[in-house]
Amino acid sequence: FDPRHYLGTHCYSLPKTGPHRLRFLLESVKDLRETLKKKGSTLVVRKGKPEDVVCDLITQLGSVTAVVFHEEVREIL
């Protein structure tokens, strides 16, 4: 979870993630973790800026062969 997603937007400082969206997101992550657990896997969840936590996570996991990112699309005004 990137803390910047819970701050105000670039324009107008409106919340990017309100309480209902946050609840849905948390419930979705919990459900995904439970589903993966039933299949013998797990879900690693971290809080922080991705550029700060990814290296630590890779080091902790040890046998990482690939890392995939996505970038938020921003509308140019």
From TrEMBL:
Is Coiled coil there in the keyword field?
no
Question: Could you state one GO biological process linked to this protein?
Answer: photoreactive repair
MF terms from GO for this chain are: damaged DNA binding; deoxyribodipyrimidine photo-lyase activity; FAD binding
Query: Any idea where the Photolyase/cryptochrome alpha/beta domain is?
Result: 1-77
Query: Which domain of life does this protein belong to?
Result: Eukaryota
UniProt keyword Lipid metabolism present: no
UniProt cross-references to Gene3D superfamilies, sorted A to Z: HUPs
The record's annotation in InterPro entries points to: Crypto/Photolyase_N_sf, Cryptochrome/DNA_photolyase_1, DNA_photolyase_N, Rossmann-like_a/b/a_fold
Sorted UniProt keywords: Chromophore
The name this protein carries in UniProt is CRYD protein
The record lists the organism as: Urocynchramus pylzowi
Read off the lineage from the record: Eukaryota, Metazoa, Chordata, Craniata, Vertebrata
